[in-house]
Structure formats: structure tokens, C-alpha cells
């Protein structure tokens, strides 16, 4: 396309004066092409050349100027400058309001563009208002099943998805899909886009099977109607890979991310693009999930190398890479480097996000956990509090992420031996987890166990026993009968009964622990020896010298 535009430009340059209005159209086309290629600075120069000519020769409210202002809005949006994007889109709309019929489709286009910027700025009410105006115009300008309406329904879906209203988002994405399926050829790329949107919303809802099915249909269609190295395939391969990652199928995920990377590397334009950096990040994340931290770090560094060379890198994407590197260094117990990269991510996010953004809370949480590892508990609590302030304001009161926050704070209080505060926050976490149908059994059992330990250290034996029993009940449902962690709980409960001089119950529980450990541990195991000694003490306390002597000898 670039070659033919260049030929057209040469012909006009040889036949027309340099400031002829036709050059405005050509420069605009050049700008659009360079924007698609990700070369935003060059695109901006061409758009400016087009606008300079058009402003000189056209009336100030001419519709062509609206198109140029719209192009400026689009390029600034691509560059992440939302305020400038909004400024130019509004200029474009102002001209169209004055120069076009009341229900002209171009007005709907302007409202959709403005709404999309508001959506990216998280001003969801204004975004919805714009999309409603766009839809109102389109319903009067087009038939009910026109593809233009599908794009607007997609926009509604995007806003509701961002607002965490997943079911409403799904209904709009389905409306868009139904229109496209009825009005477009069977293998049209826009139908593939709809499948991709459905896959994304299903994935965010945790419906992995439907997500995978939708993404695979999108891929099948794109393979039919697009070249094998088309950039759109990069996104689809990566999306399918992410679903497989979430299912624990890391090798399958890696093969799909590798296909995406091969497309990036086949095209010099994409090998140093955000798509390549994003793919490196996804490959790194798969290796991270497989606990291959050095290899994960290698791919995160590749992502960072690409982003460092790109003049148009989005700060949000750079923050993702820094966060991934911080997470990996933390897993490798390199707390200093983990903190360094988390702080780089935080610096970006604090400049670009509102103070109550949940993504900002995630970075605060990561930093808090590093300070916990470094035993700098004052700083850890300070960052945990920042996390809590945001999440309590932004998340539903029964959100499992909020439960995890309470647990993290409880663990920090536990580490500084403030067991009363620890219990308070462990119980807040349980208040959410006990009511959730999707909580992981291991997470719930661990929460019960941690609460029990804190109560025990407060010498609140009654509550300690209650929570050990709750932990035991969950673990008995999910673990093998001879799992060593069951022996640990039996031992903890037995020690409390023993301290209460309830030796008969203590002996029953010590025997259960011993039975497990005799099957799973070597005879000289420290845990087993301790159990033998403790049960001997209990027998001695009830003056059963024969059994006491037997277990002392075993110990």
C-alpha cells in the first residue's frame, strides 16, 4: 500500500502545485498507513501536512476538516495522550454537528471515538452516554442489522466489561455477533473479531471452555480470510495461549505463544513492536508458572529490550514488564531487585492512573509482600494499608481479592506477634471465603489453620480448637488419608487438649498423627519422634506407665 501511495504522490507532485487540496487527501492516507504500522511520529507529520493544506483552502467548518481532526484524535489516542485525543475528537464532532444532517453516520462515528477515550479514562458514565448517542443516530440512519451497530454494541460491551458487569458486557458482545453473522459474509474478519471479544469476556468470567471455543473459532476464520503472517493472528494465538495457561496447560500455551512470536519475527515491523514485547511477556509468564524463573526472566528482559527501543511504547505496557520482572526476582529471593522493578512500575502507574485504581493496588500489594520478605514490617503494613484503602472502596465487599488482602495483612501482624490484629484480619478474610462458592479448598483450609495458630498463641484454646477442626474438615475432603499435613493438624489439636489436661482426647489425636507418620516418614523422623514423646507424656499423666514407657522407647 505504501508503494502505491508513493507512486500517487509522485504523479501529483509532477502535475499539481505543492499546496493543491488533493495533497491533503494523500497526506492523510499516508498518515493512516503509518499509524497502522505503529510509526506514530511519521503518521503525525503526515496528518499535520494534510491539515495545514486543508485549513488554508477549506472553510473552517468543512467536513473534510472534521476527518483530519478525527485522525489527530486517533493518533493521539494510539500514543496514549488521552486529553489531546479528546480535544481533537470534540473538534471533529463540533464541525460535523454544524455541517452534516442531524442523523449522519459520521456523527455517530465521532460519538463512538469520544466514548472510547472516556472508556480508557475510566469515565464510564460519559462513555456510555456517547455510545448511546451514537446508537440513537445509527438506528435512524441504518437498518436494524447494519454492521455499524455491531461496532457500537462492542463498545458498550467494552465499557460494561471494564465496570466488571460481565453479564451485561456479554449480552452486548452477543448482539454484535448476531448482527455480523446475519449481515456479513461467513468468513468476514469482523465476525472473527466478535468471536475474539466473546472469548475475552468468557475468559474474564472464568468460563475457560467457552473462551477457548470462541478464540478457536476466531482463529479458524482468520486463517481462512487473512495471510498466515497477519498481525491479527498474533493476538489470537496469544489469547488461546493465555486460556491454556490458566488451565495449567503450560506446554500447549508455550507452543501457541511461540506461533505468535514467529509471526512477529517474520516481519521486521512487528519484531520490534508492542506485539512482540507482549508475546515475550506471555512466554515469560508461562515459564514463571512452570517455576523456571531464569528462563522467565530471560523473556521478560527481551520484552524490556524491545520496549526500550520503541519511541511509542505505552507506559502501561512497560509497567507490566517491570512488574513481571519484580515478581520473578521476588520468587528468586532477590528482594532488592524485586523492589527496584516494582518501584519502576509504581512510578509509571502513579503518573497515569487515578489514586484509587485497582491496578495501582496490585503494585502496592507486590511491594508490601517484598517488604514482608525483607522483614521490614512497618513498610509492609504501610503498603498493605494503601492496598486495603483502594480495594475496600473499589471492590464488592464479598470479592475474594479483598479476602486475600485481609489475609496478607493478618500474616504481617502475625509476624510482628500482634496476634489479636492477626485474628481480626484472618476472620475478615474468612467472612468472605466462607460465603464464596468459588473459593479454593486449600485456601480456605489454610485460612482456618492460620486463624487457629494465632488463637493458640493468644492462649485462646477453645477458638484454636474450633478453627483447627474447621481446617481438618476441609482437608479431610480434599487430601489423601495419609497426607502429612493431616498429621500436623492432629498434633496441634492434641497439644491443646494435652495443655487442658484432656489427655484422653490428646491420646486419640496423637495416635492419628502417629499412624500417618509411621506410613509416610522414616522411623527416625523428628516429627514422629516428637509425637512418640508427646503421647508418652500424655499416658504418663494418666498414670498408664506401660504405654508411656513403650512410646518413650520409640521416641
TrEMBL record:
Localization: Cytoplasm, Cytoskeleton
Lineage of producing organism: Eukaryota, Metazoa, Spiralia, Gnathifera, Rotifera
Major location category of this protein: cytoplasm
GO cellular component terms given for this protein: kinesin complex; microtubule
Quaternary organization: Oligomeric complex composed of two heavy chains and two light chains.
Family matches, as PANTHER family: NEPHROCYSTIN-3, TETRATRICOPEPTIDE REPEAT PROTEIN (AFU_ORTHOLOGUE AFUA_6G03870)
Gene3D superfamilies, A to Z: Tetratricopeptide repeat domain
SUPFAM superfamilies recorded: TPR-like
Family the entry assigns: Belongs to the kinesin light chain family.
InterPro entries assigned to the protein according to its UniProt record, in alphabetical order: TPR-like_helical_dom_sf (IPR011990), TPR_rpt (IPR019734)
Record organism: Rotaria socialis
Role played: Kinesin is a microtubule-associated force-producing protein that play a role in organelle transport.
This protein's name: Kinesin light chain
Keywords annotated in UniProt: Cytoplasm, Cytoskeleton, Microtubule, Motor protein, Repeat, TPR repeat
Each TPR repeat, start to end: 24-57, 66-99, 108-141, 150-183, 192-225, 234-267, 277-310, 319-352, 361-394, 403-436, 487-520
Pfam family name, one: TPR_10
